[in-house]
Amino acid sequence: MSKLTLEFGDDFLLDSAQQRFDEGDYFGALTILNKREAKNRPLADAYVIYADIYEALELWQLAADAWFRFLDTCNEADFQEGYEGLSIAFMNLGNELQSGYYYHRAFSSDEVNISLEDLDPYLNAPQLRLVHAEGMEESNPEELARGLSLLKSGDLEGAKTVFEEIPEESVDFAAGAGLSAMCTLMSGNEDEAEKACEQLIQRYPDNVQILTTYCAVLGARDKTEEAKEIAGRLFALPVTSTDDLYRVATALCETGRDEEAYIRLSELKTRLPYEDNILWFHAVAAKKTGNLDEAIDSLETITTLNPRKAVAQWYLERLRTQRDGGEEVPMSYYYRLPEKEYCRVAAHLLAVNSAADEREFEAIAGSEDFIESFRLAFDEMEGRDEKLQMLAAKAAVKCRADDLLRAVLLDCEGDEIVKISILHDLVCRLL
User: I need a labelling partner for 65 at 20 to 30 A (CA). Which of 42, 147, 308, 322 fits?
Assistant: First the structure.
């Protein structure tokens, strides 16, 4: 009797994914697309479905990523669709400059050449500000947003100055004061940060921002028990805001109160089911509290939404093995590999860079071990381990693993210094 085999070509897989999407089964569609992506060449039609799914889930950063990959693979006649998708994604991310740029790329005539500098004067024009009537509580969301932007960019002094400009009569004063203390802590002045928090707590004993900052200060000063006590106090507060709930959960994770962290993170997962930081923290807290199936579920969600989450995939595979009776896998709230595995990846990439035989490079480029090490290097510490990335990139250039390099260059959140280094090495390889 002849053996029956089923062959699922690109058209079948894409039609199946589109059908799942049309039925509202977004994760079913992503599962099909991810399986196709792992085995077949990049295809513009696949990235359109990816983008449609991410837009439906309001995952705008992933939507932007999908549209960039669409533009890399589509015909020139379809560029407008990609630019329009990027304009919408960046608008929802709050990046008006990029959104305006791609909007003009999508809808301006071919003769008009628009640059980011052309748009800058319009986007930096004075904005309307609401002034509260007398007797109403004043709020300062613009100052908070500006301060947070400076804080994220690393301008601690600038952020601290902005937070301190919020007047005491504002409802945002306590939050600004807590963030100012956080800037002081991040600047390395732990004494001043602790004193500031203690003074603020006298006035605002139940303010989540101040208490979480104080908890971080105590942790930085190795006052472990005091930090745990403050975290317990945070857990007991009747928190309703999602932002505050996230701050409380973070404090619980940092102080090792895993049971309470799991409770708060489960609440957050219900509110924000696709936020990767929450899913990661939830997976770790679930693992630490013996809820292995819940941990696996959160990791499956992370890796289905974004198949380039290699660190999460590494843990997922091992937790599945652990559930089946395999070896215990330790996890921490930091998004990184265990030290032993990190050293293995680094040693492997060093060995590849040391290879001299051209035929050896060719064999390495297509090996599963090298592909895994490369992807882990670019996902370790949420893509912030620049040294490991440089090592992986140089190995990939030597091995001519250009598909891996292409995927990195298309990552709109990737490290620009690493990308420039890759392009430099690729040009040198041609010479």
Answer: 147
Query: Rounded distance, CA 208 to CA 317, Å?
Result: 37
C-alpha distances in angstroms, 373 versus 30, 163, 324, 386, 396? Answer: 24, 42, 25, 15, 11
Q: What is the largest CA-CA distance in the chain?
A: 88
Q: 311: helix, coil or strand?
A: helix
The C-alpha atoms of residue 260 and residue 253 are separated, in whole angstroms, by: 9
Enter the DSSP assignment of 54.
H
With beta carbons less than 8 A apart as the criterion, state whether 119 and 101 touch. Answer: yes
Instruction: Say how far apart CA 258 and CA 265 lie, in whole Å.
Output: 10
Q: Tell me: the pLDDT tens digits for 371-424?
A: 999 999 999 999 899 999 999 999 999 999 999 999 999 999 999 999 999 999
Token digits of residue 294: 């819940």
Q: Which two tokens stand for residue 302?
A: 């992370």
Give the Cα separation of 175 and 242 in Å (integer).
15
CA distance 184 to 57: 37
Q: 411: how many CB neighbours lie within 10 A of its CB? A: 16
Token pair, residue 414, equals 């990737």
Which whole-number Å values give the CA distances from 390 to 335, 362, 368, 395, 429, in the listed order? 19, 20, 20, 9, 16
Give the tokens for residue 163: 């937070």
The three-class DSSP label of residue 170 is strand
Token code pair at residue 80: 């407008």
- At residue 133, the pLDDT reads 42
Q: At a CB cut-off of 8 Å and minimum separation 6, what does 427 contact?
A: none
Structure tokens at 354: 């040391």
pLDDT band at 362 (very low <50, low <70, confident <90, very high): confident
**Identity of the amino acid at 129:** R
Sign of CA dihedral 76, 34, 56, 407: negative
DSSP label at residue 188: T
Please report, to the nearest 10 degrees, the dihedral formed by the alpha carbons of residues 149, 273, 212, 175 taken in order.
50
Alpha carbon distance 411, 379 (integer Å): 12
The CA angle 203-208-212, to the nearest 5 degrees, is 105
Residue 123: predicted pLDDT: 47
